[in-house]
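Figure 2 data, in text form.
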Amino acid sequence: MTDLLRPRSMGMPLERLDGWAKVTGTAPYAVEHPASSPLYVHPLQSEIARGRVKYIDAHAAEDLDGVAAVLTHENAPRLATDSDAELWVLQSPEIAFRGQLIGAVLAETPEIARQAASLVRVEYQQERHDVVLRENHEALYAPEVVNPSFPSDTADGDVEAARPEVVVEQTYTTPMEHNNPMEPHATMATWSNGVLTLHDSTQGVHAMRSRIAPVLGLEPERIRVVAPHVGGGFGSKGTAHAHNVLAVLAAQVAGGRPVKLALTRQQMFALVGYRTPTIQRVRLGADRDGTLSVVTHDVIEQTATVQEFAEQTAVGTRTMYAAPNRRTTHRLVPLDVPVPFWMRAPGEAPGMFATEVAMDELAQACGLDPIDLRSRNEPAVDQATGLPFSGRHLAECLREGAERFGWAERDPAPNSRRDGDWLVGTGVASATYPRHAMPGSTATIRRHDGRYEVRIGAADIGTGTWTALSQIAADALDCHVDDVRLEIGDTDLPTATVAGGSSGLGSWGATVVDAARRFREKFGTDPDDGDEAEGAMPDNPDAQRYSMHSFGAHFAEVRVNADTGEVRVPRMLGVFSAGRIVNPRLARSQLIGGMTMGLSMALHEHSVLDPQFGHVINHDFAQYHIAAHADVADIEAIWLDEQDPHSNPMGSRGVGEIGIVGSPAAIANAVHHATGIRVRDLPITPDKLLRG
C-alpha cells in the first residue's frame, strides 16, 4: 500500500472538536443521557469464591419504599445460551468467583437501591477455593492460542545445545493490575417496541451488540448501542461484561421504564477484567561482545475457571532482538477468580518489562552500555515471521533519545551518584507494539447542506477520534476540516471495529478514505446535495509482505531516598517511531498518558488478592495506588518524522499503547543504576529497596 494521502489537515495540532462540550459538561456519557422516570440498579455480589447459593431472602429489601424489584437466579428472565460463560448472569446458583453477580435491586433512586441491597440475606454452600498463582501449580496447561490468535509456544534453533559465553537467567513477576478509567463502567437499558437500546460506556458499539445478541437470543437488528462519548477504557470496555447483561435483565422486568446501572469503583475490581499476574522466566545468552545467541521467555499466568483468557505476554520478545536460538512459551493456571481481560498493551506491557530488565542485566554482565547492546542485536527481519519490517527505526529512537537525555554524561557504575539524601540513576528500555488493522468496518459519505456527512460507528474513548478522524476525512475529500460533519458511536451507523490494539484510527481512517475515494470517483469535486457513497476497510496486500510494528525508546531518571527507599521520577523521555502522526497534540497526549501509566505500573499498581476470601482487598482509589500529579514531573514524548507507506493510506501505525510498553523497565533499570539493587518484581516499593 503506497498510495498515501496528501496531508493538509493531517499533521496539524488541532484542538479537540468535542473539547468545548466536555469542559462545559454538555457531552453526555452513558448514564447521563436523558431518560423518563428511570429505575436504578444496584448489583448483589457473591461473598464466597466458590460454591453455590443455598437461599436468598429478599423480603426486607422488597418491603422498602421505592424498591421496584429484586432479581435473583430464581426469578430472573432466562437467557438463550450459556456458550458465553461470563455473560451467563443470574441463571444458576453456582458461584465461580467472589464478586460474581448473584442478584440485583431495582429502585427509584441509587441510594434506595443500595440500601435495599444491604438488606438481602444470602446463605451459601461454600466449597474450597483456589485463587493463588503458583509456578508449580498442578493444573498448569498450554492454551491453544494466546490473545488474540498467536501460537502459545514458539521454538527456533536449539536453546539447550547452545553454549553462550555470558548467560543471564532470572525470574520476573508482575502483579494483578486493574483498569481504572475515570468514567466507571455504566449502561442504561431501555426496551421499546421490541427493540433494546443500550447507552453504554464501550470501546465498540458494534462489538458490544455482536457479543450480547446471542446471549439474549435476539437478532442484532433489535439491539441499538449508543456511545458518543466514553470516559476512558484502556481495554476493559472493549467488550460486553456481566453487568451489561444484568442491566438488560433488569430492563425486562422494569415495565418499559429505562434502567441505569453504574458500577462503583469497588464493583469494577470483580466484574470488568484485569491484567493477569505473571511469572516470567527469561534467559539471555550472548558472546562476550554482547551478540545474542539464546533468547527464551517462559510465562506462567492465570485464567478463570469459568472462562479462558490467555494473555500474549511473551509475544513481543519474538520480534525484539536477533538470536539464532529462541523459545517462548505460555502456561495458564485456571483459578477461582474473575476473568482476566485486556489492559493497555496486553502482553507487551508486562512481557517487555521482563525482557528489557533482562537486557539491562546482560549489558552489565558483558560490560556494555545498554544502548550499545540493544543496537548491536537489531534483527534484519522480523524473527517471528521472517518478513522485512515496513519500518524499524528502534536504533534511531535510541540514538535520538540518548542525545536529548544526556546519556553520554552518565557514569555507568551503579550507586555512583548522590545528591544529599537521594541516590540518582538513569535507565533505558526499548519498546515495540504491533500495527493492528481490524477488517470489517464500513463508512458512508453524504453531501448535505454544503458539508460532507461522514458516518461510521467508531468510538471516541477519550483519545480524540472526533478530531483525528475528521482530519483524515478532510484530507481524503480534499476539503477543510470544518466542511466535515462526523457521526460516530451508534450501531445505527455503518459497522466499525473496536477501539483497541491501537487499531482504531488506522482501521477507521482507511475505511473513510475508501469511502471518500468512491465518492469522488462517483460524483467528482462538485457534488449535489444528497449524493452518497459507501466504502469499506480495504484489503492491504502489504500486510502479508511486511512485518509492521511501532518502536520506541524510553529514558528515565530516578531519585531514591537512601533512608526511606522512596522513589521519585523527575524525568522521563520517550522517543517513538509510529509512522505518520495524524494530530501531534492528540498523539503527545496519548504517548505521555501511556508513559504515565507505565510509571504507575512501575511504582504503584498492585491489586492485592486475599487468598483466604478470594477477593481484591485494595479495591478503591484510597488503597489501589496510581500515579498522581506529584508523581509526574518532566515527562516528554517525541517521535521521528516518518510515514509508513505499507500500513494504510495515512501512513500511520497507532500510538495508544506503545507509550506504556517499556516505560516500567526503564524506571526499574534506573533504580538499579541509582542503588545497585535489582528489583525484578513489580511494583518497585520502598520495602523491596530497603531489604536490598
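Caption note: The chain has a mean pLDDT of 97.
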